[in-house]
Amino acid sequence: MSADAFERTPQNTVKRIPDRGHYDKETIYQILDAAFLCHVAFVDEGKPFIIPTLYARDEDSILLHGATTSRMLKHAQTGQPLTIAVTHVDGLVLARSVFHHSINYRSAVIFGCGTLVADPAEKMRALELFTEKLLPGRWADARAPHANELKATSVIAVAMDAASAKIRAWGPKDDDEDMELPVWAGVLPVRPMFGEPIASDDLIAGIGVPDYIPAHVATQNHKA
Ligand SMILES: Cc1cc2nc3c(=O)[nH]c(=O)nc-3n(C[C@H](O)[C@H](O)[C@H](O)COP(=O)(O)OP(=O)(O)OC[C@H]3O[C@@H](n4cnc5c(N)ncnc54)[C@H](O)[C@@H]3O)c2cc1C
């Protein structure tokens, strides 16, 4: 692996439409940093599992966290292989023919093995990364985890050994003989959006929406 790109191996090489494949870290990390939900796949007791979960990137590692009792987190700390997928759907690609309908997307597939983050300071830093990834400004505002909450939480760092990205970002590609068909063709964009904050019914009086929430919503919705 060069410093800037993941080595291409049979496992991480995109085979179908290979020019949509990317292996440079800049592209892959942009895809990872623009999401907070991933799917973690692993084989446990001979059976395949795939689990949706939150994550945060820390340099060349993916951090996972959750209840110490979780199958996925118990498995992840054994050091056995994990595969992690992150997907952004950017648009429906509507072609003149059904055959050429497609999706615009940015996706990343990561291969690696996990280790338990046991050091209390590192664990706390990882939880801060998670919280700040969800909503910048939240860590300093919300109550920090108590010792018993930390004990009930596992944090796993998955070192990224190999990775790939695949991107489609253009309009439909119809066959020449279909170009004169009277069928609308183009892209219907798909965008994730934050809505208006909804206060808890049991919020104590006088607590307004903190400034970092509309600030984040404005930035994210503007990007979308
Ligand atoms: C939102 C979305 C919808 C899709 N819908 C379809 C569909 O309906 N039908 C279909 O055939 N394909 C679909 N794909 C593409 C699909 O993800 C695979 O790329 C496709 O199955 C071809 O895989 P392959 O045989 O080339 O490679 P495989 O042998 O399956 O994979 C080899 C390696 O290539 C890399 N790779 C493959 N796909 C991706 C990816 N999407 N992102 C990052 N790395 C990847 C991985 O490292 C993988 O281990 C979709 C992708 C996305 C993101």
Quick overview:
This protein is an alpha+beta fold and 224 residues long. The chain has helices at 25-33, 71-76, 120-134, 138-141, 147-151, 212-223, and strands at 21-22, 37-44, 47-54, 56-58, 61-67, 81-94, 102-116, 153-168, 186-189. The chain is globular and about 65 Å long.
What does this molecule look like?
The protein is α+β, with helices and mostly antiparallel strands and 224 residues long. It is 23% helix and 34% strand. It has 6 helices and 9 strands, in the order βαββββαββαααββα. It has helices at residues 25-33, 71-76, 120-134, 138-141, 147-151, 212-223, and strands spanning 21-22, 37-44, 47-54, 56-58, 61-67, 81-94, 102-116, 153-168, 186-189. Strands 1, 2, 3, 4, 5, 6, 7, 8 and 9 form a 9-stranded antiparallel β-sheet that branches. Strand 6 (81-94) and strand 7 form a beta hairpin. The radius of gyration is 21 Å and the shape is globular. The two termini are 33 Å apart. The model has no long low-confidence stretch (mean pLDDT 96). Bound molecules: flavin-adenine dinucleotide. Flavin-adenine dinucleotide binds at residues 11-16, 87, 89, 103, 105, 107-109, 164-166.
